[in-house]
Design brief:
With about 280 residues, the chain is an alpha/beta fold. About 55% of the residues lie in helices and about 15% in strands. It has an eight-stranded mixed beta sheet, with helices on both faces. The two termini are about 35 Å apart.
Length: about 280
């Protein structure tokens, strides 16, 4: 895999996160290519990562073994249709990371014979700590699946979904999820400052607590309920806080928020599905 050319169409935030993760994992920057319309961004990417950048999407597609479509969902239909002629001979394996764009739309825009896999990454990919979901229809062969999984595993964990509709749920959980934790940490930090801790101390304590809790949950054999119960003494401080969360409807609020994100993913798909 390390000798294959991995090319990105669009060199924005998510492409940068993935490139960082891939290089950290040992991918040779000489095998990474990015098509990006913005000249300043092309220069930034070339300097930051030591990769090749070009302006022309089709030229990049012609050089790719694996082509990662990393433009905004709203731009993808036009970009994919423009790329289609370049993909007709020796089509590279295409991975689309666009939120909410269905496989059928991608296939129609890129061309029926182009192998396409949907991937939903998240930004911790930049640290190799990403969580990505992959979906491919039955005609994608085992070698192509392994290649996609190998690339995505360089940026964190990768899970395959059996049913494309699960992508909407995964987008709501892990695609958008980092922002939920940032929001919760921000709220904890603000409260800690209000309770009298210096800002830097509050920040550090909140971040280390989040990291420690996530690591405990990852590394422990106990489930989340047992872990929570094990640090909640009857009548203690943790119980006082948890009761307030519970009485305030935290679980229902989280459920509403994730359902809202899932529904937005579905409505984006419906509005961006094009006329295929
Ligand atoms: N950010 C996340 O957390 C996240 C998570 C999961 C999935 N995604 C998916 O990742 C994709 C990219 O998101 P992002 O946050 O990285 O957006 P972004 O930062 O705006 O990156 C998109 C890049 O594509 C460039 N671009 C625009 N038109 C183009 C064209 N015709 N050809 C080639 N490149 C073009 C943009 O350049 P200009 O700035 O000059 O327009 C920009 O550099 C989206 O489809 C999104 O759904 C993002």
């Amino acid at each position: 895999m390390k000798t294959k050319t991995l090319a990105f169409i669009g060199g924005g935030n998510m492409a940068s996160a993935m490139i960082n993760g891939l290089i950290e994992d040992g991918t040779d920057p000489a095998h990474i290519l990015v098509a990006e319309p913005n000249q300043a961004r092309r220069e930034q990417l070339a300097v930051r990562f030591g990769i090749r950048t070009l302006e022309d999407n089709s030229e990049v597609a012609r050089q790719a073994d694996v082509l990662i479509l990393a433009v905004k969902p709203q731009a993808l239909e036009a970009v994919a249709k423009d790329l289609s002629p370049a993909l007709q001979q020796q089509a590279p394996l295409c991975l689309s990371i666009a939120a909410g764009i269905r496989h059928a739309s991608l296939q129609a825009w890129l061309g029926e014979d182009v192998p396409v896999i949907r991937v939903m990454p998240n930004t911790p990919a930049m640290l190799g700590a990403g969580a990505s979901g992959l979906y491919a229809p039955g005609d994608i062969n085992e070698t192509q699946r392994e290649l996609a999984e190998h690339i995505i595993r360089a940026t964190g964990i990768a899970v395959w979904l059996d049913d494309e509709s699960q992508m909407d749920a995964l987008t709501a959980v892990s695609g958008s999820g980092p922002a939920y934790f940032f929001l919760f940490m921000e709220a904890m930090q603000n409260s800690a400052i209000k309770l009298g801790l210096p800002e830097k101390t509050a920040h550090l304590l909140v971040l280390q607590t989040a990291l420690g809790a996530a690591r405990m949950a990852m590394e422990s054999a106990s489930d989340l309920t047992d872990l929570r119960n094990s640090v909640t003494s009857p009548g203690g401080t943790t119980e006082a806080a948890l009761n307030i969360f519970s009485n305030g409807g935290l679980a229902q609020l989280v459920d509403q928020a994730l359902t809202g994100a899932r529904d937005r993913s579905i409505s984006l798909s419906e509005s961006l599905g094009g006329d295929e």
